[in-house]
Amino acid sequence: MNEIYAWAAIGLIILASTTGDVLLSYSMKRVGDVGELWKRRGVLAVVGRVLTTPTFALGVMAMGVAFYSLLFGLSWGNLSLVVPASASLTFVANAAAARIFLHERVGRRRWIAALLVAGGVVLMAI
Questions:
Q1: Which candidate among 8, 24, 85, 106 keeps its CA 20 to 30 Å from the CA of 75?
Q2: Is the overall model pTM greater than 0.90, yes or no?
Q3: Rounded CA separation 70/65 (Å)
Q4: Residue 1 carries which DSSP code?
Q5: 100-to-68, 90, 96, 97, 115 alpha-carbon distances in Å
Q6: Count of CB atoms within 10 A of residue 109's CB?
Q7: Does residue 7 have a pLDDT over 90?
Q8: 83 exposure class (CB count in 10 Å sphere: 0-12, 13-18, 19+)
Q9: 78 neighbors 10 (Cβ within 8 angstroms)
Q10: Tell me, what's the pLDDT at 45?
């Protein structure tokens, strides 16, 4: 039964972490060039711009959910499965989400890497 809980936690880690990554990336693209803003207006302007971007707060909350899901997953499953499976499958999900939601170009090499990572998780799980 704990193994089912561990895989549920892994699934939630992947979903929450990918959501958080996409929202944070989207937010920072809306903020713009942080280095340029820092030079022109200072660190407080950067912090203000970041914190007033609504999707930034949502992204941070999603990352918090991912973190606590990791804690639950580690209480139910083995470290040698939960951490590598969640990290590697998040890599695969991030590639797909970047393509779908952020319209980023994800090259063939990255897709091949994602498939190899997913294959490694399957080998680890059996």
A1: 24
A2: no
A3: 9
A4: -
A5: 26, 15, 6, 5, 17
A6: 8
A7: yes
A8: middle
A9: no
A10: 81
Query: Looking at the predicted structure, is the pLDDT value of residue 110 above 80?
Result: yes
- Where helices occur in the chain by DSSP H, the ranges are 2-31, 34-41, 43-51, 54-76, 79-101, 108-125
- Domain of residue 80, residue span: 2-125
Question: Number of structural domains, the chain?
Answer: 1
20 has a pLDDT exceeding 90: yes
Rg (CA), the chain: 17
Residue listed under structure tokens 């711009």 = 49
Placement of tokens 């909350």 in the chain: 61
Round to whole Å and give the CA distance between 67 and 12: 10
The owner of tokens 């941070």 is: 60
CA-based angle 30:31:36, to the nearest 5? 135
Token duo for residue 107: 């090259």
Tell me: the pLDDT tens digits for 31-83?
888 888 888 888 888 888 889 899 999 999 999 999 999 999 999 999 988 99
